[in-house]
Design brief:
The complex is a heterodimer of chains A (100) and B (373).
Chain A (H helix, E strand, L loop, with lengths): L3 H8 L17 E6 L4 E6 L9 H13 L6 E6 L12 H8 L2
Chain B lengths: L3 H31 L9 H20 L5 H23 L7 H27 L7 H33 L7 H23 L2 H27 L8 H26 L2 H36 L18 H24 L2 H26 L7
The chains are: A alpha+beta (100), B mainly alpha (373).
């Protein structure tokens, strides 16, 4: 029903309030898919296991996909492998983080 | 024996600011560190007023009313025992321990014994029992400062610093080494207290210093591997804190060599007011906006514009706090070293302005409203 790019676009509305970037440009969304019945799947991670916004960020991601038309169910798969690091972020994010 | 006014100030600062902040932070961080929910989060509503009342009674006791000391000591003891017991009942739920969990377990065990030593001392101050306070003082200080505050800071550092700095790929081994050495040092201080063997005491001091040098190495690796290079108010406070820690260690080690007492006092000053204070102040600039944001703005996400956490920081007052407080700390360090009364007053004036700026920052962050965006 939706391809990976469309799902990523929807999820890019979710912003990490600590760093000020969206989760897609941070490189925190590893994969996303959606079958013909509207069942979506998002594979994601967080910048740290200790993130106190664990639940909340997953909820925001879920809600961002649920807003898309004809989505029935969204499954969030939170993974820690591969562990996130800054090299996974977009170039402009890396640039801002490094202060250059 | 230290001046009782100094003891009053030390307890007001350590119990009223440092411990109160650590306990408050632990209410938030224990579930993050232990990955299980609190046994009874409601108990924190009893802990903070008890700790507040107990601290005030103790400070009054040190200042002018020694008969209040045991009452203050008992109230503080109750607050801390509730905290420690709540922690032990929470950690019981943990299935598999990691290094950070071990660090908080060790630190809370030291706190348990440190408070008992403190209570015995306060009973003696008030004349209820007869023990040699000077003998117990060293163990009390090392159990609470080295055993609890420093090991807690060590454990929390490897959670908070990488989280805020986006650091990855550093080794946790130095934390393990630093923690073990500090624990041995604390135990040796207690042994030396009761055996009166000087060499054990000196070995303990050397070990405690070594532990902090190893810890500093760990901090340096976390700093080097961070993705966020911005030197914001958080980073500035932490850099000042760790520089203070190293200078404090150097002054302390110099004291062991030349026995000039102001060196020891300056070392203690820098450890408490430079290292502890700035570490905690720095983290307050991260944690308080998050807590306020979580409570006030997270329900509004997707419905209306919400602030970024950095928007909730008062730029001017936080900079003023850092500037005035850091100048005050440095001036007073020199004042202690050169035993200069006028310099102490000058440094204290800077600290008062820094403290007021910090209070203003806190009020700004706590009262941040949607219309402030």
């Amino acid at each position: 029903m939706y391809n990976k790019e469309e799902l990523f676009l929807a999820i890019s509305t979710v912003i990490d309030p600590e760093v000020g970037f969206n989760l897609v440009e941070m490189g925190l969304i590893y994969d996303a898919s959606c079958d013909a019945e509207g069942n979506a799947y998002v594979k994601m991670t967080l910048s740290t296991k200790a993130c106190p916004m664990h639940q909340l960020i997953q909820q925001w991601v879920k809600e961002s996909v649920e807003k898309m038309a004809n989505i029935k169910e969204v499954i969030i798969d939170l993974v820690w492998e591969p562990a996130w690091n800054a090299s996974m972020a977009d170039e402009h994010v890396k640039k801002v983080l490094s202060g250059s | 024996m230290l001046d009782t006014k100094v003891l009053g100030l030390a307890h007001l600062f350590l119990l009223g600011f440092i411990m109160m902040t650590i306990f408050g932070a632990m209410a938030q961080l224990v579930p993050v560190i232990l990955e299980v929910g609190h046994f009874g989060i409601e108990l924190f509503y009893a802990i903070w007023p008890l700790l507040g009342i107990g601290t005030l009674l103790m400070v009054l006791g040190f200042l002018n009313f020694p008969q209040l000391l045991p009452y203050g000591g008992v109230v503080v003891l109750i607050a801390m025992m509730i905290f420690v017991m709540e922690f032990f009942l929470t950690i019981k739920k943990v299935k598999k321990y990691n290094l950070v969990m071990n660090s908080v377990l060790i630190s809370n065990t030291f706190l348990f014994f440190g408070v008992i030593f403190g209570l015995v001392m306060s009973l003696s101050y008030a004349g209820s029992i007869d023990v040699d306070i000077n003998v117990l003082l060293r163990s009390h200080v090392f159990l609470v400062i080295g055993g609890y505050i420093i090991i807690t800071l060590m454990g929390l550092s490897v959670v908070l610093l990488p989280m805020f700095g986006l650091s990855h790929g550093f080794s946790m081994k130095p934390l393990k080494i630093a923690m073990i050495i500090m624990s041995i040092a604390v135990i040796l201080v207690i042994v030396s207290t009761f055996t009166h063997i000087k060499i054990i005491e000196y070995i303990a001091y050397i070990l405690a210093s070594s532990s902090l040098f190893v810890y500093f190495y760990l901090i340096q690796t976390i700093y080097k591997t961070r993705a966020r290079k911005e030197i914001d108010i958080y980073a500035k406070n932490l850099i000042f804190a760790y520089v203070s820690m190293i200078v404090s260690l150097l002054l302390g080690l110099s004291y062991l060599l030349i026995s000039y007492e102001p060196l020891l006092l300056a070392a203690a000053w820098l450890m408490f007011f430079g290292f502890f204070s700035f570490s905690i102040t720095g983290h307050i600039y991260k944690i308080v906006p998050f807590l306020v944001w979580f409570e006030r703005f997270s329900p509004l996400v997707g419905k209306q514009k919400v602030p970024m956490l950095s928007d909730m920081l008062p730029k001017k007052s936080s900079s003023a706090q850092f500037l005035f407080a850091s100048i005050g700390i440095v001036v007073i360090t020199f004042a202690i070293l050169f035993q200069n009364e006028v310099l102490i007053k000058a440094g204290a004036s800077f600290l008062v302005v820094g403290a007021l700026a910090f209070l203003r920052s806190m009020l700004y962050m706590i009262n941040f409203k949607p219309e402030d965006i």
